[in-house]
Design a protein that fits this description.
alpha/beta; Purple Acid Phosphatase, chain A, domain 2; Metallo-depent_PP-like; Pesterase_MJ0912; Ap4A_hydrolase; Metallophosphatase family protein
């Protein structure tokens, strides 16, 4: 018996991209999804993306570093209102929190950073970044081999799937040729921030994993699908998304930055700064 699973991550509020991924996955026989974190913001569709995944038989949700940032702000992490990147995050968080229900926020707070699943005779370790943290660049495509070896130091699994770095890759944890000892390490890529442009627009990425009860993994298909970037831009404009110009720049050029100087150059920055202060005070009950 075969199972086709759509493994995705890093939606980052890009609802248009997520819809295209789900449509492609279902057209290719996917009946179940695993979400490895960072549904959360930068684009305007965080809440709708979360709810769509809930509807589409997403059986596993992990907490990415952006979801964790919600709760770090809640519990008192330092905020610098003169730092435009802090201001941007607070404004995006404010929009998300105004739409999420309290029950949904509580559910996201309970999402684990890693999860181990048993399928087709395999033990698969799912994580947003690493088993012990969901941020950082230790598993970037050009990271030292030792970093990938370390994944399996403290876990007992046949393979690992992670996200976070916004790049689809396949690695192993052993650079010597010992095929019965190597563990596969796969990265889903990113739904919402691939930075890959084609003639028809931005590309969304996900992993289509086919499992077979007799032989385990039969294929790991790194899928890439186009989506309507003009539609996503129109949506961001319609809802007056904070730092809209930076979001459009990413969708149109494939260039993404949360550089504070770049964000501070937005002509509406003083307005966004004031909104961030109000939200933060409300969050703290001040």
């Amino acid at each position: 018996m075969q199972q086709k699973i759509g493994v995705l991550a890093d939606v980052h509020g890009n609802l248009t991209a997520l819809k295209s991924v789900i449509a492609d996955a279902k057209a290719n026989g996917v009946t179940e999804f695993w979400s490895l974190g960072d549904i959360a913001t930068y684009g305007p569709g965080t809440v709708a993306s979360y709810r769509l995944l809930k509807q589409e038989n997403t059986t596993i949700f992990l907490q990415g570093n952006w979801e964790s940032s919600y709760f770090e702000v809640e519990t008192g992490t330092d905020v610098n209102f003169n730092d435009a990147s802090d201001v941007a995050f607070l404004d995006w968080m404010a929009q998300d929190y105004s739409d999420f229900t309290n029950e949904e926020i509580a559910a996201i707070r309970r999402f684990p950073m890693k999860y181990q699943v048993q399928r087709a005779g395999l033990t698969i370790e799912l994580m947003h970044n690493q088993p012990n943290k969901n941020y950082g660049s230790d598993l970037s495509p050009d990271a030292p081999q030792a970093n990938f070896n370390n994944i399996f130091q403290d876990i007992d699994a046949d393979m690992a799937i992670y996200a976070h770095i916004h790049a689809q890759i396949m690695r192993s944890d052993n650079i010597t040729y010992e095929p019965y000892r190597m563990h596969r390490i796969l990265n889903t890529g990113t739904v919402g921030q691939s930075y890959q442009l084609t003639k028809t627009g931005m590309v969304a990425q996900y992993l289509l994993l086919t499992l077979d009860d007799d032989i385990g993994v039969t294929s790991a298909d790194f899928r890439r699908v186009n989506y309507d970037t003009a539609q996503e831009i129109a949506f961001a404009r319609q809802v007056d998304w904070p730092f809209y110009e930076a979001y459009v720049r990413m969708l149109e050029t494939g260039q993404f930055t949360r550089d504070a100087d770049s964000l501070a150059a937005d002509k509406r920055f003083p307005e966004y700064q004031a909104q961030a202060k109000i939200f933060y005070q409300q969050l703290k009950g001040e």
